[in-house]
Amino acid sequence: MINLFYLTILGSLLSIFLIALKNTFIKKYGGVWYYYIWILVLICYCFPYKIDILQYFTHEIQYQQQSIEDTAILNNTLFHSENNTIVELEQNDMSSTYHTIPLKQVIYNIYIIGFFACFAYYIYYYIRFQRTLKNTTEITNKQYIHCIKAVCSEMNIHKTVTLKKSILPISPISIGIWKPVIILPDIDFNITDFTMILKHELTHYKRRDMLYRLFAIFIHIIHWFNPISYFTLLTIQEACEYSCDETVTKNMNTDNKIKYGNMLLNQIQCSQKRNLFFYGFAENHKNKNILRRRITVIKNEKKYKRVVITLFCIFAVVFCYSFFDFHTINANKNDTISYENNNLIHINHHFAKTLTEHQFKVIYKFTDNFNNNVDNVTRDLTDKELQRLNSLQNKYLYYDIRPEKELPLEAGTQEFYIGFNNGIYHYPERELTDEELLQLIDWRLKVNYALSLRNIEQNTSVPNANDITEAEAIAIAKQNVEHLFHTDTNELQINATFYQNSNIQPDGWFVRLYPKGDMPYELNWNYAVWISRGNVETVRSSQNYHIKQTKNIDSSSKEQILNDKTWLDKAKSIVEQQGRTDIQYVSFTNTNFNTEKISVDIKVVVNNGYYIVSLYYPDQSLKGISHIIT
Questions:
Q1: In this structure, are residues 74 and 89 in contact, taking their beta carbons and an 8 Å threshold?
Q2: Distance of CA 356 to CAs 350, 351, 359, 361, Å?
Q3: Which has more confidence, 35 or 84?
Q4: Beta strands, E only, 517-607
Q5: How far apart, in whole angstroms, are the C-alpha atoms of residue 459 and residue 455?
Q6: Is the pLDDT of residue 544 over 80?
Q7: Angle, alpha carbons 252-256-258 (nearest 5°)
Q8: Residue 52's closest CA among 69, 64, 34?
Q9: Which of 289, 360, 538, 568 is the most exposed place for a label (fewest CB within 10 A)?
Q10: Other Cβ atoms closer than 10 A to 378
């Protein structure tokens, strides 16, 4: 809905611009140009992607584009903590249940109802139009048939064009996209007027103007709530006639242009009303300004210079797109972004703009006083609350659903709050509302974002980009994934990006390996490898596996895990498979489990550092491994 709002604003601004300067543009650049430039506006109404040209003028935006891939770590439920170990961001993957803040749900429902109502209106309108066509009979006048064959041959039209006449008071009209039919009023035409009428109507058919018009109608249906989209539709219909008049009379001499103009006026007098589903001389026939512009187009004999104005319009549209929060298209191969990453980087941009210095200090003080890997709570969340939490987090990440207020850090009027002095999350005995769950999600993501910034600020070791090439980084990543997870990396898409002076990612190479063509939260395994300062961290994630194979670690499971030596043995064997024979000791780490944690972290100390091995609970399958060199 947010993107639709931006699109309708952008499209409206461009529509107002073209409508306001209609007379100037038609006079200077002609009806054909004015008709087809509206395609650019229709694209703006429906294309939520941009080429962010501002990145070439500001270092900040250029950097933001460079760091797109780092937020995939949110999507894969991991990020680097202060000691480069793995910290859970999302312990459960998110289901597809749709939950929204009530106001946004109401707006969404109203939009859907309006969309289908508008769509039904146009269907009804089309059916009524089709019924009027029953009052037609096929024309058998040999002179007319001979004339239309001659005009079709001249215009290089090979389809059979059917001629019909109607008892209704209409002007000549054409219908049909693939099977053209021209419907005439039941009057006699002289052969000159008849030839000009045929050229006008067949020009519509040859250019497939009906497809253009149907596209404009569909855009209007999408933006039914925006009255400017309706004026856009009407103006495109109007411009279609300017364009057709200009095309037909382009090579005519002055006398023939006068005859065409007289024929046009005569046929308009016969018209009844305009219709969205055919072309004819009746378009806006009561508007004298439109008639005046059509005659001006016909009389004009100048040669238009349209290249500069067209390029200017395209550049203006691209520039305007940069001011809206659409998905970004980059030409740089290393900066190519996917749909999910673009949504996630948007959250970091939001935090970068909204978090104040005071809020950062509060978060750092809170996390320094208490272990940020676990929530100390007054009660466990119920299964229903966890399901809603996961669903709302999905909406937070991808649909811009936000809480109306921030989570309180002290007792007050709200039943749900965090005790800032003791680090306890105070849950009411009742179920948490959607607003309260969104406050919890918002708080956690802010904490993770703040910690990631401080982690990188403390990282002073910057590797030389020439030490490891992209090919070498990919080779290392493929080797690790194949060795650890027995996966054929040749079946995966691979994207490698080198980060330097990044605010979130460690300096070095970040390599993603993911199934071809999958959407966000792939059901198949996807992998991420970080290569930084000689350290290598490899992780994998799969929504399908998380849902079907893993369980949450509750308080009763904690003691069982810590007393189960097989966890340590499993981690030790994985490190031994890396060729390490210098293991000194193995121990649990990050043991403050909570009801949302689905993996167990084990620290394996070796001579030159240590490994952090993360195993899924309860089957002890490998989730990720990080090698820290000290």
A1: yes
A2: 12, 9, 5, 9
A3: 35
A4: 526-532, 535-541, 585-589, 599-606
A5: 7
A6: no
A7: 120
A8: 64
A9: 289
A10: 12
Contacts 24+ apart (CB under 8 A), 472-476: 473/498, 473/509, 473/511, 473/531, 474/511, 476/511, 476/529, 476/531, 476/536
Residue-level pLDDT at 87: 31
Q: How far is CA 429 from the centre of its chain?
A: 39
Q: For 307-319, what is each residue's pLDDT tens digit?
A: 999 999 998 888 8
- Report CA torsion sign: 500, 506, 509, 514: negative
What b-and-e string marks burial along 178-207, b requiring 16 or more CB atoms within 10 Å of the CB? eebbbbbbeeebeeebbbbbbbbbbbbbbb
426 exposure class (CB count in 10 Å sphere: 0-12, 13-18, 19+): middle
Residue predicted with more confidence, 507 or 120: 120
Angle ∠(55,61,63) on CA atoms, nearest 5? 105
CA geometry: angle 583, 586, 590, nearest 5 deg: 135
Q: Side by side, which strands form the sheet with 417-419?
A: 376-377, 424-426, 417-419
Task: State both tokens at 221.
Answer: 């249906």
Q: Which residues contact 474 (CB under 8 A, 6 or more apart)?
A: 494, 496, 511
Neighbouring-strand partners of residue 497: 510
Q: Which two tokens stand for residue 71?
A: 């937020």
Q: How many Å apart are CA 40 and CA 314, to the nearest integer?
A: 8
Give the mean model confidence (pLDDT) for residues 62-83: 35
Instruction: Report the 10 Å Cβ neighbour count for 516.
Output: 8
How far apart CA 339 and CA 171 sit, in angstroms, is 50
* pLDDT of amino acid 318: 87
Name 12's Cβ contacts closer than 8 Å, sequence gap at least 6.
Answer: 226, 228, 229
Enter the pTM of the model: 0.51
User: Average pLDDT, stretch 618-625?
Assistant: 89
Tell me which amino acid residue 549 is.
Answer: Q
Is the backbone peptide bond immediately before 618 cis, with ω within 30 degrees of 0?
A: yes
Reading the block at residue 147, the tokens are 């004339």
Q: What is the pLDDT of residues 480-537, one digit of tens each?
A: 888 888 888 887 888 888 887 766 677 788 888 888 765 444 457 888 888 876 678 8
Q: What gap in Å lies between CA 577 and CA 205, rounded to an integer?
A: 70
Strands 599-606 and 585-589, sheet pairing: antiparallel
